[in-house]
Write a structure and sequence with these properties.
Shape: globular
Strand content: 5-15%
CATH class: Alpha Beta
CATH superfamily: Glutaredoxin
Number of helices: 9
Oligomer: single chain
CATH architecture: 3-Layer(aba) Sandwich
CATH topology: Glutaredoxin
Helix content: 40-55%
Largest sheet: 2 strands, parallel
Order of helices and strands: EHEHHHHHHHH
Strand order of the largest sheet: 1-2
Number of strands: 2
Length: 165
């Protein structure tokens, strides 16, 4: 019988440019380790740690560096109205936690979809309808996802991760 996969905890904030770069690279190499390594996504909520949201100006300075490191990474400067800039990432973390209740693969797929929606599509990833759209696109079982998300089942795990991270 094969050994169970080694679990690697990956603490990151969904709107951190450096975590986006790391996620991009992990998605490229993980197929080689399928069945041997499992990524466990953990919420490193900078808003929880810093007790404030991350200003857009900080990300505007950091994010273009992604293209220097990975020219093919999906990215476009924020082009939605500033009123759609997400001031909290907490719902996105909870959505990933709800996806993880379905599978580690589901969590990885939704995590990536959320990051790409933010960095490449200028979508407000703090909005329920955006998160549900992304969850549906990644193939999650939506009745279960909706019940978990609306029931707040991942909230405590997100807070615990943020404290640990």
């Amino acid at each position: 019988m094969p050994a169970p996969p080694v679990q690697i905890e990956y603490f990151s904030d969904v709107h951190c440019p450096y975590a986006y770069l790391t996620s991009y690279r992990l998605r490229q190499i993980m197929p080689e380790y399928q069945g041997r390594i499992e990524l466990v996504f953990r919420a490193l909520s900078l808003e929880y740690v810093n007790r404030q949201s991350t200003p857009k100006s900080i990300l505007d300075n950091e994010t273009p560096l992604l293209l220097l490191a990975e020219p093919e990474i999906p990215y476009a400067p924020w082009h939605a109205p500033l009123t759609e800039w997400p001031v909290t990432m907490w719902p996105a973390f909870e959505a990933i936690g709800c996806a993880a209740r379905q599978s580690a693969v589901a969590a990885a797929d939704l995590d990536w979809a959320i990051r790409e929606a933010f960095f490449a599509e200028s979508r407000c990833i703090s909005m329920r309808h955006v998160l549900f759209d992304l969850a549906g696109q990644t193939g999650l079982e939506m009745d279960r996802f909706a019940a978990d998300f609306d029931g707040g089942v991942a909230k405590q795990a997100v807070a615990d991760d943020a404290r640990r991270g």
